[in-house]
Design brief:
The chain has no helices and eight strands. The chain has about 140 residues and is mainly β. It has a single domain, classed as lipopolysaccharide transport protein A fold, CATH 2.60.450.10. A hairpin with a 4-residue loop joins strand 4 and strand 5. It starts with about 20 loop residues before the first strand and ends in a 6-residue tail after the last strand.
Length: about 140
């Protein structure tokens, strides 16, 4: 098994992952063009599918506050997901849970896309059984 990472930058796609067996305890941080950690993808077990695609069991994406890269602002979890490393996109049919101090989102058959350079938000699309709970005691 070979696992090789290079830091992500906005101007290059120099990320390589190759494995002939599942990888246990997977962790892949993503950084902005200033080298600040913006989110990271974690998984209990990862299966290499291609240079651009992996399958993750017990996927967790932690999104960090822009002003403090050590504080998690949002957590996205799913038992199974397919992740595109080149498109920074995750898809799954199993249950997705998104938690944030102000809301919780649940649903099945979903897609998550990292925010684009010209947008200020990430995108989560839930196609089945979507439920959202807002917390009225949340104070930003």
């Amino acid at each position: 098994m070979i696992l090789f990472f290079l830091p992500y930058c906005a101007h290059c796609e120099l990320f390589r992952l190759q494995a002939d067996a599942p990888i246990h305890g997977f962790k892949m941080p993503m950084f902005n063009e200033r080298g600040e950690r913006i989110w990271q993808c974690l998984g209990e077990r990862v299966h290499y599918r291609s240079e651009a695609k992996i399958k993750i069991e017990q996927m967790c994406i932690e999104w960090f506050l822009p002003e403090n890269a050590n504080t998690v602002d949002m957590i996205i979890r799913s038992p199974k997901a397919t992740v595109s490393l080149t498109q920074h996109r995750a898809d799954g049919r199993s249950l997705l849970t998104v938690t944030n101090p102000g809301y919780t989102i649940l649903g099945n058959d979903w897609t998550w896309e990292e925010k684009q350079h010209n947008k200020s938000f990430a995108k989560v699309l839930i196609r089945k059984n979507a439920h959202v709970t807002f917390y009225d005691n949340f104070k930003p």
